Amino acid sequence: MIIVLKPGVAKDEIEFITEKIRLLGLIPHISTGEERTIIGVIGDENKLREAPLSAMAGVESVMPIVKPYKMASRDFTGKDTIIKIKDVQIGGNVLHFFAGPCTVEDEKSTMQIAEFLQQKHIRIMRGGAFKPRTSPYAFQGLGLEGLKILRRAADAYNLIIVTEVMAMRDIDDVVKYADIIQVGARNVQNFTLLKELGSVPRPVLLKRGLATKIEEWLMSAEYIMSEGNKEVILCERGIRTFETATDPSHGVGVRQYIPQMVYAAIASGSDGILLEVHPDPDAAMVDGAQTVDFHEFTVICDSAKKVAHAINKEIACL
Ligand code: PEP
Ligand code: MN
Q1: 279 Cα to the center of ligand 1, angstroms
Q2: Domain-by-domain residue ranges, the chain?
Q3: Which of 35, 121, 146, 182 is the most exposed place for a label (fewest CB within 10 A)?
Q4: Nearest atom, ligand 1, residue 131 CA
Q5: φ, ψ for residue 216 (rounded to 5)?
Q6: Index of the ligand 1 atom closest to the CA of residue 250
Q7: Has residue 130 got a pLDDT over 70?
Q8: 317, 299 in Cβ contact below 8 A?
Q9: Fold of 2-64
């Protein structure tokens, strides 16, 4: 249920309404926009029907949220989500690259990439320490050691880190070393993991699953948000269809199409671009075919800036 308050509603009126909601055993979520304050209510909506909320001072209207996802719905807050991590803001007017290797390979290459990203004024570095691989015999990531390398690189080059967690048992380590936790495409409907991430003090970057509908993806976001963590970053990474001409991993999976995908994503209003960058993609341990080198990344940044500026957005890259 959404309670839309009148413009200029008084503070004590808001307190009175929220207290009433709590007394009914429901949870109010206040969202203050530039023009309006909205209270989203989660819980058994039948209880709200018993209360004369629409007649209360300061209330303009009371509406049901018809979508199955509530907190992940734009109706619930009435505004864009902005997430602040240290001095970096995700959402709003500045677009960020989330750039780095598919997997952390060793200290030297990770430092080299981090140094390059800092030179390019990039603030968010990605890199996998726990890798979801199709084959159990393929490289599975450096695990805890990979997390420590990422942290050292981030601290040395003033970056924030996003890395994937695949299992509940690794959550504490990932929270300790990373700034944003990635849930990969394969875990998007691992509801137990999602619930657990609902109570960690880190934003979650939630990738779309290999075959998830938008509504299912948003319901996965709801799993995290309904447990208290409202900082969910949705990452559209493409879905798998009957088409085999391009591997859809991370959008296209083919290096030559990446620039166009980046520009299209910026033009369509994305707040961030997740991109795999490596000093020598052909020698990368994982996902080399969809990874760009430093020169290609620089070329992408140059055009990305023009696209961003054309839609009045800033972009964090030199
Ligand atoms: C990745 O980001 O390297 C990754 C494994 O992504 P996805 O879950 O989208 O395949
Ligand atoms: Mn990858």
Answers
A1: 19
A2: 2-64, 83-315
A3: 35
A4: 5
A5: -65, -40
A6: 9
A7: yes
A8: no
A9: Alpha-Beta Plaits (3.30.70)
